[in-house]
Design brief:
The protein is built from eight helices and six strands. The protein has one domain (46-201): Cytidine Deaminase, domain 2, CATH 3.40.140.10. A six-stranded mixed beta sheet has the order 1-6-5-4-2-3, sandwiched between helices. It has helices at 46-60, 91-94, 101-113, 131-139, 151-155, 165-170, 184-192, 194-203; strands at residues 40-41, 72-77, 83-88, 121-127, 144-149, 177-179. The protein has 204 residues and is α/β, with parallel strands linked by helices. The structure holds zinc ion. Zinc ion binds at residues 100, 102, 129-130, 132-133. This is tRNA(Arg) A34 adenosine deaminase TadA. GO terms for molecular function: catalytic activity. InterPro entries: CMP_dCMP_dom, Cytidine_deaminase-like, TAT_signal. Keywords: Signal. Residues 1-33 form the signal peptide.
């Protein structure tokens, strides 16, 4: 497993008093609900881990394309478990700074449903949503967000905005539960892939 402490995050990372580096369960961590907000942080299930592994494998397919990317997302019906949409980050392909994996997937899912809200749906993402994406998850009314690698993990490989998804979710009256990290080591393989590293160097 990659060191999370030794190489350290470059910037102070706010966790808002919610520990997500506690006891691992299926590669995931559950923590108590954050105080002062309506966000809940729940515990990953075996189904969460299975879906995350599948999403990571889907995202890994980009390594053999002209646009390798470690960021993929998938939206499932929270009740039936049926997959509604999955997609990867398209920032480079679309010349769109907002084209993160979560945003692209939410846009496509809403277009498919011809709806502006995704209540009753859960979003999985290979990396913890950035503040922009977590805000979009909240605006979309998603029930739940489940992530793989953490923002701290991603920050070791490129620029990030160091506000945890839980912190974003806590500062609103919109309800959404957050779970992660799930299958963190496997998600990190997206970042450490040799083809991905080569592309990331070009990003800097
Ligand atoms: Zn994002």
């Amino acid at each position: 497993m990659l060191s999370l402490n030794g190489q350290g995050s470059r910037r102070r990372f706010l966790r808002g008093g919610v520990s997500v580096l506690g006891v691992p369960l299926l590669g995931a961590v559950g923590a108590s609900a954050a105080e002062g907000g309506v966000v809940t942080v729940d515990t990953a299930t075996a189904v969460d881990a299975e879906r995350m592994r599948s999403l990571i494998a889907f995202t890994m397919l980009t390594m053999d394309t002209p646009h390798p990317i470690p960021y993929g997302a998938e939206i499932f019906d929270s009740t039936t478990g049926v997959s509604l949409m999955r997609a990867v980050n398209r920032v480079s392909e679309d010349h769109d700074p907002s084209g993160h994996g979560e945003i692209v997937t939410i846009r496509k899912a809403c277009a498919k449903l011809q709806a502006r809200l995704l209540k009753g749906y859960t979003l999985y993402t290979t990396c913890e949503p950035c503040p922009m994406c977590m805000s979009c998850c909240l605006w979309a009314g998603l029930d739940r967000v489940v992530y793989g690698a953490t923002i701290e993990d991603a920050a070791r490989f490129g620029h990030q905005i160091m506000i945890p998804s839980v912190e974003v979710a806590r500062r609103t009256d919109l309800k959404c539960s957050v779970t992660g990290p799930v299958e963190r080591d496997r998600a990190l393989e997206l970042f450490t892939n040799a083809k991905m590293r080569a592309v990331m160097k070009a990003w800097k």
